[in-house]
Amino acid sequence: MSDEAKLKLIFANDNASEEITTTMNTTVRDVKSTIMESHWPASFIDIETVERIRLFAGGRELGGKGVDDQKSLRDAKLPPSSSYPTPVHVQPVLKSAEATAEREAAAKPSQCFCVVL
User: Fold this and answer.
1) 50 - beta bridge partners?
2) Which residues neighbour 64 within 8 Å (Cβ) at sequence distance 6 or greater?
């Protein structure tokens, strides 16, 4: 099995695609960073509105959040192909003003003074 992985990035709801080459020892976090910094298509949504991205290959998500993103592509079980680039779907997760408002509301104490008997 080769240590090199050719990936064909397919961006959700956009006609843009791009091929990149990396190693199977590269972490999912590094691949995501490379995509966001160097391979983001101009025709796609503005990178400033993106909180993070999700990557899917072979019907499974590569990485996820936190610790899962620290796995190498090999540990994330990326299904590489020697005859063609492995299709990887890129799905952005947008920043949300509502989520921020919900977090702030959850941090405030409740105004309810109900007593359950």
Assistant:
1) 94
2) 54
Query: Along the 117 residues of the chain, how does pLDDT read in single tens digits?
Result: 468 889 999 998 888 889 999 999 999 999 999 999 999 998 888 889 999 999 999 889 998 888 889 999 999 888 888 889 999 999 999 888 665 555 555 556 666 667 777
**Residue 5: strand, helix, or coil:** strand
Q: What are 91's strand-pairing partners?
A: 54
Angstrom CA distances, 10 to 44, 73, 96, stand at 11, 17, 24
Strand partners, 54: 91
Written as six digits, the tokens of 76 are: 């994330």
Contact between 71 and 26 (Cβ < 8 Å): no
The residue count of the chain comes to: 117
- Integer angstrom CA distances of residue 80 from 8, 16, 57, 86, 114: 11, 21, 9, 6, 58
- The pTM for the full model equals 0.77
